[in-house]
Amino acid sequence: MFSNSISVKNVSKSYPVFEKPIHRLLQMFFYGYKKLYSEVTVLQDISFELKKGETIGIVGKNGAGKSTLLQIICGTMHQTDGEITVNGKVAALLELGAGFNPEFTGIENVKLSASLYGLTPQEIESKLHEIIEFSEIGDYVNKPVKIYSSGMFLRLAFSVIAHVNADILVIDEALAVGDVYFTQKCMRFIDEFKKNGTVLFVSHDTNSITALCDRAIWLDNGKVRMLDTAKNVTEAYLEDYFGLSQELISDELSSANDIDVTSDIDYLDLRTKFVNSSTLRNDIEVFDFIDDGSFGSKKAKITNSILTHNGQKLSWCVGGEIVNLKIYIKAYSDITKLICGFYFKNRLGQHLFGDNTFITSQQRKQVLELKAHEEMVFEFGFRLPFLPGGDYTINIAIASGTQMDHEQLHWIHDAIAVRSQSSFVGSGLIGIPMKSIQYSKLENSHG
After folding, report:
1. What is the pTM of this model?
2. Using an 8 Å Cβ cutoff, are 94 and 71 in contact?
3. Strands 4-18, 37-51: pairing kind
4. Could you give the C-alpha distances from 386 to 278, 360, 396, in angstroms and in order?
5. 61 Cβ partners below 8 Å, 6+ apart?
6. Reported confidence tier of residue 107, pLDDT bands at 50, 70, 90
7. Could you give the angle at the alpha carbon of 335 between the alpha carbons of 331 and 337, nearest 5°?
8. Strands 198-202 and 55-59
9. Measured between alpha carbons, how far is 72 from 94 in angstroms, rounded to an integer?
10. Nearest by Cα to 424 from 381, 383, 382, 385
11. DSSP state letter for 140
12. Cβ-contact 13, 77 below 8 angstroms
C-alpha cells in the first residue's frame, strides 16, 4: 500500500512566447540552435507530498498557477521540469464541460466520461441510475449538453466523478458556479469521501479550505509561499489579501435602512433558567487580550479588547448571555473614515459571525475621525450563541477609508480566546437561543 497518493518534486512549468507568428514556424528549423522566443514561467520549483487519506487545499490569487498545477497532476498537461508520482485512480473536476461532447446528450456524456475513468460498460449501466439521480437535472439528461447552464454542467460532471470509485479527488474552482443546495451536497460527499480517499481541493473560499482540509498550500506567482496547517495558511493568505485591498459592500446604502425592523428582536431562550441550573449549562471561559499575531500600517493601534457583561469584565460567562465586545484604539496620526470590526472563529479558523461599524456610521451619517494621540473605544453588543465544547478566538481589526478602497491599520489574529466547557447546543457549529418552541396534537389526528 502506498503511503503517498501524490508526490510532487521540483516541478516547474514554462511556456514559449513568440513575438511574431512566423517565428513559431522558423523555430522548427533551428532545432534548438537559436531561440526565437522568450519563456514565461507559470510554476517554479513546486514540491509537496499528499499522503493517503489526507486532504490538501490550495489557495492563491488568480494567475498564481493553481489550475496549471492541477492539470499537471491529472496528466492533462506536462511539466517542463521536475517529477510527479500519482498512486491511485484520479477523478478530477477541473473545468466545466471538459471532456463532454456538446452534441451528445447528458446520458451519452455520462457513459463517455465514465468509460474514460476505466469503468466497464457493465459497471456504467449499474451506476447510471445513481449518477442521474445524484445530478438532479431531471429530463435534461436526455438533451444535448450544449443547452445546459453552467450549474447543470457542474451537477452532471460532479455526479460522474462521485461514482467512478476513485482513490484521489481533484477539484478546482468549478464548485463556485453551483447553486447553494447542490454545492452543499457536493461538500457532504467530499466530507464522506475524505474518510477513505485523498482530496486535492482548490478554492477561494477560505472557510471551505479550513473546514475540509488538513493542510494547505499558498501559491503566489507560481511559487509555494507557504505550506502548513489549513488554519495557518488561510490566516496568512487573508492577512496578505486584506493588507493590500479589500472588496466589500458598496458605500451606497438603500433607503430601506430607514425602516425599523429590529424594534422587538431581543429575547431569552425559554429554557435558560432550567439549563443554567442544570449540568447542561454552557460554561464559557474567557481569556485575556493578546497581540501575538498582527499586521497593518499601525497608524492607529488596538491597545486592548475585552468582553463585558453589565459593565463588568468577563472571565467566564454562559451561552445565551448578552455580552459586549469592547475594542480600544489609539491613533498615532490623523485618521479619517475609521472602520472597526471583528470575527468570531472556531478552532479551524471558520468565521462563525462578526460585524463592523460601517453600516452604523453610514446610517448615522457620521464620518469617524481621530487626531493623532486621540483614543477611542468601540463596543459591539450581541447575544452569545451556545457553543459546542472547544476553543474559539476573536479576530479584531481597524481600517481607514471606504469599504472599496481602504488601508488596514491594525489586524490582530486571535486577540481574545474563549473556551466552551460544556455541551449544550441544539445542532451545528453554534446554537442560537430559541424564542419559542411549541408543540401540540392536531385535532382528529387519531388513525
Report:
1. 0.68
2. yes
3. antiparallel
4. 15, 26, 21
5. 220, 241
6. very high
7. 130
8. parallel
9. 11
10. 385
11. G
12. yes
Using CA atoms, how far apart are residues 68 and 12, in angstroms rounded to an integer? Answer: 10
Distance, CA of 242 to CA of 224 (rounded, Å):
20
Q: How far apart are CA 2 and CA 249, in angstroms?
A: 48
* One-letter amino acid of 280: L
CB 320 within 8 A of CB 386: yes
Average pLDDT over residues 6-29: 82
Closest CA to 87 of 193, 192, 166: 166
Output the DSSP codes for 429-447.
SSBPPPS-----PPTT---
DSSP state of 116: H
Grid cell 500519482 in the structure block, residue: 86
Confidence of residue 48 (pLDDT cuts 50, 70, 90): very high
| Nine cell digits for residue 294 | 498582527
DSSP per-residue string spanning 142-167: GSBGGG--HHHHHHHHHHHHTTS--S
Do residues 343 and 206 lie in contact, with contact meaning Cβ atoms separated by under 8 Å? Answer: no
For residue 349, count CB atoms less than 10 angstroms from its CB and return exposed for 0-12, middle for 13-18, buried for 19 or more. Answer: buried
